Amino acid sequence: MKRVFIASAALFFCTAVFAQTIDRSKKPKEGPAPVIKIADPAKFVLPNGMTVLVVENHKLPKITASLSTNRGDIVEGNKAGVIGLMGDMLNEGTKSLSKEAFDEKVEVMGASVSLNSGGGFVSALNRYFEPSLMLMADALRNPAFEKENFDKLKSQAVTNLKSQEKNAKSISARVVNAISYGKNTARGEFQTIQTTEAVTLDDVKAAYQKYLSPASSILTFVGDITPAQAKEYATKAFGSWTGKKIEIAKSTPVANPAKTEIDLIDVPSAVQSEISVANLINNPYSNPDHHALVLANHILGGGAESKLFMNLREKHGFTYGSYSNLPSDRYQTMFKAGASVRNDKVDSAVAEIIREINNMREGKITAEELATAKAVYNGVFAMRMENPQTTANYATTILINGLPNDFYRTYLQKINAVTVADIKRVAQKYLNSADTRIVVVGKASVVKDGLSKLGYPVKLYDTYASPVSEAATAPSAGVDKNVTAQTVIDKYIAAIGGKEALGKITSMSADITMNVSGQSLGGVMKNAAPNKSFMQLSMGGMTVMKKVFNGKTGYQEQMGQKKELGADEIAAAGDTKGLFPQLYYNTDGFKLSAPVIEKVNGDDAYKIVVTKPSGKTETEYYSAKTGLLVKHESKIKAGGQELEQTMEFGSYTTVGGIQLPGSMSQSIMGQSFELTLKNYKLNEGVADKDFE
Questions:
Q1: In terms of pTM, does the model score above 0.85?
Q2: Is the Cβ–Cβ distance between 172 and 339 less than 8 Å?
Q3: DSSP tag of 168
């Protein structure tokens, strides 16, 4: 105990003395940049043209190998998605092994093997590496390409695309590139449901033959392996593979707009808007400005200490984070700054992003900001080098881009030589503000007026990057004076079967299929008058979600966890007066706003705000043409938050003389879920015990 006390006292004394000798009001000087030693990997070329790189690291008895194809950008045209499907098919078994047998062999060895459209990856302990590599080679060289697997993957791809149709982030990811580069270019085209459905198995086989070849491939070994061993393995796995060198397509540079413009894409269900301030640049790795641009991007929007983050999040609270990206590429690439911002602050956020870009262009960069960026980058670079895979990645970058062998050995020297004047110079040259695109994907009815006041022309595009005229988005006419909220409701009731027929329905059930991010869930929905409800979704025979309300109380189960419905949920359920609530909108306690016309999926619809007896409001949209309910907006509480939920209805089908929706699309928190309803039953198959 005495020894511990003495040691503790000594530590306390040293700490006190150290504290007295440091002036904490001054930031300590940055230390010298880390000295980075990067050995050149061993390199050789097989007779078939495959380049092999070997990075030795004998610390662990483990080896990885990755194969990548140097083929440049590819235009897929009206079969966009074919290359992705081809890559997926490479993981579906070989000519001699089914997918199940292949996966079992990998699992037994504790290895990791995966394939993609450009090659593959394998990782295993030394003793299992050779058979694991041979499995990867078999999958890459002898894919099964079975029709059944193709149909499955194609269906999953279509389902996934459907789930993203109303997701603002997914829409932004495609339209920013499409509008900037052009929809008919390799970097501007995108996969759609139509292009995916057009792909055939023969297209996949043709893409495989055209875009995978050993003559254009780079095989990289990393780990406990020697160049001699690597050559033996590479020759055994790929030596007999033949193919011609893939011609790398040249790209035609695309011009930025002559003057800055706002490109607005309307997503009515969006709670937040996706903002992208983007302009096209040329920034190959060999660019003399490369290192200055790395730091300029970091200062502007590279992290939590950047100008964009500190402004839009810390100062104004517009967003959870705002960032910029300025990549290097052998082709024309894109500088982009942006954020996800709540709709009511979109115009303010755009103004602040432009302000920070202009601050960079005007040289409003302090020496401290530059020093911080250098320190962060020095540290990140050094940490990356702890992973031997980084050396392999750097070697591949050097090879593909024709860079000098010492490109990364001298990297930090060049980073630390950048000056404030260099940052200003490259900002003026590459970070545009007068001829850039401001792409906003969000709820146009909320954000458009504010954006129009910023002084830039506002151009409208649809969610697939096609121009839209003002006339196409404006309601075709005002509301006729004879049209009231009640006449809209009466037309809906008549359209789906009439008051008398609807009044005879006391119960209803339907089978449900829900698609979420490519996964399919099956279930059943049951309702009984006046407001009893039951819904259950399952996957693989296991219940994923179940919600029950018996008219007074209820509960919800998710993944085995049961929770009683809260007071708000019970009150909301109690607002429902029947299986067709519109029948009761003319009774006491309900209030309907005067209808206004808005567009829903390009067609006129009457928008009506319904105030229920509890005081809760919901918004409903009825087709001006058919009278059918096409959209419903409400707010729900989850996890202590109030969230906006949107439901769109379509594919109406007639059941027992009643028109009922066959499909529903639900959007909440930027996520979309597609539901299909079929096998409706009216006044049968529902019992009180279903709601217990």
A1: no
A2: no
A3: H
